[in-house]
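Q&A log
Question type: sequence-to-structure
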Amino acid sequence: MSESKPLLSNDDAENLRRLKAYQPWAFFITFGGYFMSHFSRKCYSTVKHPLEEIAGYPTWVLSAMDTIFMATYAAGNIINGKLGDTFNPTYILAIGLLGSGVCLLAINLAIWFDFEHLNEFYADSYIYIIYFFFGFFQATGGPVGTAVMGNWFSDAESVKNRGLIFGFWTCHQYMGDITAGLCTALILQLGLPYWWALTIPALSNIAWAFLTAQLVADPVSVGIVTAELKLRMEKLEVKRKELAEKGETMAEDEGPKPISYAAALAIPMVAQYALAFGFFKLTNYVLFFWLPYFLGNHFDDKTANLIALLYSVGMMPGGVIVGYVSDIFGGRRAVVIGTFMLTLIFFLAYFAVKSEAGLPPSTLLVLLGCMGILVGGPNNIITSAVAADLASHPSIRGNNKSLGTVTGLINGTGSITASLGLLAIGPLEKNYGWGSVWTFLIVCTGAGTLLMSTKIYAELFPGRSSSNVVV
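Response status: OK
Response body:
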């Protein structure tokens, strides 16, 4: 979409046609960008055993890497969401992809030149610094990509089917995870050095960064009049008339201004969703980072990575299911999320009882597939469709410079909780075994669900609630 037209047009049909025409491309580029982020992020967890056994990094260093990543990823989500609302989102996305690729190549340097065996202190410090920046770069895809999707999928039909659209869109992360697992398994099967599992996603991220740089982030920038723009212009016209009655004039409109963090937190339910998502994200990331390691205690690395893929496979339909069902019920997503989380607790309890003795591959495949659905659905929808719902609250309608900030706050808060919780995994596993880890996840899942209890009640019994607004 390279043509340029006047900013405002009365031809609604033409605006809708142009909006719809570019939606598949916007979907594809942002989908691919987040796919690449997870492709590069997951590859590290698939080679944890080689990093420990061949490169010489001890378990506590690997655990600290997870924590550093999650801490900077959390801050990066909050910062990048705001940057995406303030500057050109396309450039923020491209920089994130490029930086992620460079960081993975830097990790390979430590492997190629055997830093850990040359000097343990400097090698650990080097890998910590790389992962510090890696977290920041990885944090662009979520809030900024969601904002771009919100810009383009803003017509009435898309808003009505927001849960389903974002449910499919959020499959990007799990397809990236699956691709990373398959890529690592293939590399090990072919007998190639394990560091190729870092090199391939690194180069892929760098290549996609240049493609992303060509993306049009906002339909308004190419002259498409969206519903949000119309609403903003209507508000400005009302304000202009009020000032004219007082004999005053209004300065020329320079477009919507990004909302502040305080304004984003003041939107009803943003803080509550952010806190609840923190516990759900912790459960997800413990499985994300540690599942291959846990399975590696019972299977060889190749088999462990292939079995772990079923968790990521299950997460894809989870988002679609939650999104579609919540669309059917008019966007009442908290009830569906709560149902999924309560069901997950039963699966975690089974692992807590049975995991130490070991489970047959067939049972693991079924359990991990179901757990992927139960975890993936809520995690996908909260940071996409729910965030878009929240950013469309009446108090800020007409301002499309809010979705990145809202998404960043939710995802960032969740990542802060996850980074702190990950500190407990290594010590729990070492001192009390894997049963204690699964019990810890049960507590986290229950806490997140309880934080959403008021919203769940309001959706189940809207007549008894003090507010009937569904976000």
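Response note: Confidence is low (pLDDT under 50) at residues 1-9, 466-471.
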